[in-house]
Amino acid sequence: xxxxxxxxxxxxxxxxxxxxxxxxxxxxxxxxxxxxxxxxxxxxxxxxxxxxxxxxxxxxxxxxxxxxxxxxxxxxxxxxxxxxxxxxxxxxxxxxxxxxxxxxxxxxxxxxxxxxxxxxxxxxxxxxxxxxxxxxxxxxxxxxxxxxxxxxxxxxxxxxxxxxxxxxxxxxxxxxxxxxxxxxxxxxxxxxxxxxxxxxxxxxxxxxxxxxxxxxxxxxxxxxxxxxxx
Length: 230
Description:
Layout: E1 13-18, H1 22-32, E2 38-44, H2 47-57, E3 61-64, H3 72-82, E4 88-93, H4 98-106, E5 111-114, H5 119-130, E6 135-136, H6 138-151, H7 157-163, H8 167-178, H9 182-189, H10 193-207, H11 212-222
Parallel strand pairs: 1-2, 1-3, 3-4, 4-5, 5-6
Helix pairs in contact: 2-3, 3-4, 8-10, 8-11, 9-10
């Protein structure tokens, strides 16, 4: 698929807009269609419609509102991720809340930002999640840190498992959850890619986690997502 005027060599990114407010969808469409590498392939007014559209159009990204009729955005996110299409869900919300953030990320969302964000930030977020990276705006990042401190005293199985990891394994896990490759992690932590791969293998053996949504959930619940490179 090619759109006239699209930047040469750039992949066209298919986007679904999921929001129960027609005016919001119209505004997003008008702004995003000005980007040469973005194309809106559908609009949904409910979570179930978003899931149906995702099955039919196989988009790269769904811009997901959380407060929609029916099952809502959280359940829709979970169902879209479970389809295994590689579709990324970027949550757009009016007022970010800690419970929303945690539920969305645990459902498999790849990003979280406010609706009032500038269009440049939104397009940057879309490109970030398409590259299989986690995107959190400043408000969401603060909520992640807050969530870490609120959970730090919980003696659940995940916390115990995290405490058994070495400092380096904790760093590697946090960066994997954010979507960094072995080579990128090696560069950030001054390690060889082979050493990073060895850490990845041990993490999989110890925790039974290999897919990024699983890593995100574990890192979020245990506080490792807050400061992965510290």
